[in-house]
């Protein structure tokens, strides 16, 4: 039996805890969240989860893995009691921009993984990367990988500096895709469609394109060419997206800006004193 402690059960904690309950046999899940009603609403009905508003009743409890799913500011405010419970086992953080050094300094433990999942965890299709501190054992690494494989795909990174780029591409990536869908819907409405039809056309086009890209071994560029007829409509649309300074350059700039923000968050969340 694996005992998982979820610290924070909002969008991401709720999604990962739900998947763990479904996919990991004998997982025993405990959730601490000051909004237990919201937390329960985000978890599947009828599943056995112990939910607490704080750590008051957990002083003696021990866990195999604590998963930190709070915002970085909320992490900074965790009580000494919370920290002593969390560090009873291995620890996985999903917080953007909180480094292994900052985690180790605050938690007083080296059995830590810093991970970055994304919101499609809600439908079991997350992309998660992780980087392990030296103190994480092989058994801990397998436990962390098993947890994140329950919500999608998981890869270990060998270098922590890559996690900022991974955050900019995959952590934030669904937000860019949803923004693109939003603008396509707005363009469809501007072309005369009603909002419901625009919504249907864009949702199904995104779903179909994503499933094709998953199922078909051709590269994204090859698939793009398969849609594009010589002197046809796609070519006309792509000429706008691929004009100088347009989408390719915007993607480079957006990923660089998000990675830069991740680095800034790391500096803000840096430990006040270096770890011993
Ligand atoms: N939303 C996203 O797409 C992604 C978010 N992340 C990271 O996940 C973390 C959580 O993000 P969301 O789930 O979106 O936020 P959220 O606001 O939905 O969830 C945070 C939860 O933590 C709870 N909380 C606050 N203080 C607490 C405490 N002292 N003890 C226990 N629980 C406490 C809140 O009540 C809330 O339910 C952030 O650090 C973010 O960087 C990582 C990847 C993707
Ligand atoms: O926007 C953020 O900071 C978090 C991390 C990746 C997705 N959401």
Q: How would you explain this protein's 3D organization?
A:
By secondary structure, the chain is of the alpha/beta class. The chain folds into two domains: 2-159, Rossmann fold, CATH 3.40.50; 173-261, ProC C-terminal domain-like (ProC C-terminal domain-like fold). It is 51% helix and 15% strand. It has twelve helices and eight strands. Strands 3-2-1-4-5-6-7-8 form an eight-stranded mixed β-sheet, with helices on both faces. Helix 7 crosses helix 12 (247-268). Residues 272-276 have low confidence and may be disordered. Bound molecules: 1,4-dihydronicotinamide adenine dinucleotide and (2S)-3,4-dihydro-2H-pyrrole-2-carboxylic acid. The site of (2S)-3,4-dihydro-2H-pyrrole-2-carboxylic acid has 4 residues, from helix 7. Residues 160-265 form the Pyrroline-5-carboxylate reductase dimerisation domain. It is found in: Cytoplasm.
């Amino acid at each position: 039996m694996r005992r998982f402690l979820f610290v924070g059960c909002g969008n991401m904690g709720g999604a990962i805890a739900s998947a763990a309950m479904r996919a990991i046999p004998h997982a025993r899940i405990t959730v601490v969240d000051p909004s237990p009603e919201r937390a329960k609403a985000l978890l599947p009905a009828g599943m056995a989860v112990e939910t607490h508003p704080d750590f008051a009743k957990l002083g003696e409890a021990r866990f195999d893995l604590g998963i930190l799913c709070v915002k970085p500011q909320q992490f900074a405010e965790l009580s000494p009691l919370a920290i002593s419970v969390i560090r009873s086992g291995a620890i996985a953080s999903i917080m953007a921009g909180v480094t292994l050094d900052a985690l180790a300094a605050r938690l007083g433990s080296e059995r830590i993984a810093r991970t970055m999942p994304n919101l499609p965890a809600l439908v079991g299709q997350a992309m998660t990367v992780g980087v392990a501190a030296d103190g994480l054992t092989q058994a801990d690494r397998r436990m962390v990988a098993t947890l994140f494989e329950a919500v999608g795909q998981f890869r270990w990174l060998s270098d922590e500096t890559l996690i900022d780029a991974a955050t900019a591409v995959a952590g934030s990536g669904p937000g860019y895709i949803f923004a693109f869908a939003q603008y396509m819907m707005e363009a469809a409405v501007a072309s005369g469609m009603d909002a419901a039809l625009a919504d249907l056309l864009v949702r199904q086009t995104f779903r179909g394109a994503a499933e094709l890209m998953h199922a078909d071994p051709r590269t994204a560029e090859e698939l793009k060419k398969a849609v594009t007829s010589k002197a046809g409509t796609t070519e006309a649309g792509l000429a706008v997206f691929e004009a100088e300074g347009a989408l390719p350059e915007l993607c480079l700039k957006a990923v660089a800006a998000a990675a830069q923000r991740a680095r800034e968050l790391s500096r803000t969340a840096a430990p006040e004193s270096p770890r011993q």
